[in-house]
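Severity: low
Component: inverse-folding endpoint
Summary: output formatting inconsistent between runs
Steps to reproduce: submit the following structure tokens with default settings.
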């Protein structure tokens, strides 16, 4: 969920922002995984690593956090929710681990392994599965090509991901793979659809539909489509990010209102007027669907109710994590929150 303020994103975008805030004394070294209480109870550094840690994903029961360590001891790691027990799970030879996602039952983690080269879009990407104890590491699907940012279906049987086959590194297809047998099918309206690039995607809570943000070359719009690839319909125009509420009923979007106002808003799933909530560059529903975390460029991280009320700043100073050269895709989601929706977890850099 990325925003280029006041303009529509139409062509290739290769910048993803994951954000966090902390005081300079809270962090050391490079990017760290931090936690902050939603009541504003303070930032806690969980990883305390001298190099970069990134891509945190909280397990469904809230007890574990998967994350990526990118230097010195690179690989996919897991730790307890308080930062203890940091353990390497996987390091695919020659690859960089990215974008971990927990299965709904907490028994598997899917991630992308990227064999890097310059420019980034010539890299080889593969999907891998591993158990939280590091066992049963295996590649997913023989027909999976160049996957990006996999998201588990709510029933844990399928994965939704972007596919990078475009020579410019754009995500030009959305794909679903059935984990059991590797069967794949494509979303996005099929051949001839007026959609050329995808930049965000999310499952409905019942797993029957998906919502995604796509560009037709002129505007970015949000679409709802059946998870089997049927019944695509336009939900909202001029959006920069989409995320289905964990309890259904509405979809949060970052939307352009008029010519100059970009706000987080909620749109009924059945369609209709967008309800304005607050300013945000990226956002994350909590797991109850009652609140959203707001990541807002140089402003502090904040939390707000789904109705726009009870706004609360929960951090002190801003700090961006700039993943230049990494493809776009889903930003923060419910996996950024603890199971009880009391704590928010995100990557942060030391404040200057």
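Observed output (run 2 of 3):
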């Amino acid at each position: 969920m990325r925003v280029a303020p006041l303009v529509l994103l139409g062509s290739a975008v290769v910048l993803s922002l994951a954000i966090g805030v902390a005081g300079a004394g809270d962090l050391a070294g490079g990017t760290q995984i931090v936690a902050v209480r939603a009541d504003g109870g303070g930032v806690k550094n969980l990883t305390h690593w001298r190099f970069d840690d990134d891509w945190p994903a909280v397990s469904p029961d809230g007890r574990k956090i998967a994350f990526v360590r990118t230097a010195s001891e690179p690989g996919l790691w897991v730790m307890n929710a308080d930062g203890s027990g940091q353990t390497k799970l996987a390091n695919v030879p020659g690859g960089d681990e990215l974008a971990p996602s927990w299965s709904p039952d907490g028994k598997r983690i899917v991630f992308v392994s990227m064999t890097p080269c310059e420019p980034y879009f010539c890299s080889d990407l593969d999907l891998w599965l591993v158990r939280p104890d590091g066992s049963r590491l295996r590649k997913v699907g023989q027909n999976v090509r160049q996957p990006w940012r996999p998201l588990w279906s709510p029933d844990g049987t399928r994965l939704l991901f972007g596919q990078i086959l475009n020579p410019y590194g754009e995500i030009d297809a959305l794909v679903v793979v059935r984990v059991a047998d590797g069967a794949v099918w494509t979303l996005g309206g099929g051949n001839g659809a007026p959609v050329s690039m995808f930049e965000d995607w999310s499952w409905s809570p019942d797993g029957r539909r998906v919502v995604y943000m796509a560009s037709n070359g002129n505007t970015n719009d949000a679409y709802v489509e059946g998870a089997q690839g049927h019944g695509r319909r336009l939900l909202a125009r001029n959006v920069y990010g989409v995320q289905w509420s964990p309890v259904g009923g509405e979809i949060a979007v970052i939307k352009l209102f008029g010519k100059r106002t970009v706000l987080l808003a909620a749109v009924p799933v059945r369609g209709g007027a967008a309800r304005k909530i607050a300013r945000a560059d990226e956002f994350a529903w909590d797991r109850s669907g009652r609140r959203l975390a707001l990541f807002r460029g140089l402003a502090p991280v904040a939390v707000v109710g789904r109705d726009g009320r009870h706004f609360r700043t929960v951090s002190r100073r801003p700090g961006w994590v700039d993943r230049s050269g990494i493809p776009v895709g889903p930003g923060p989601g419910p996996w950024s929150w603890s199971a009880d929706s009391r704590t928010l977890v995100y990557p942060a850099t030391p404040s200057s």
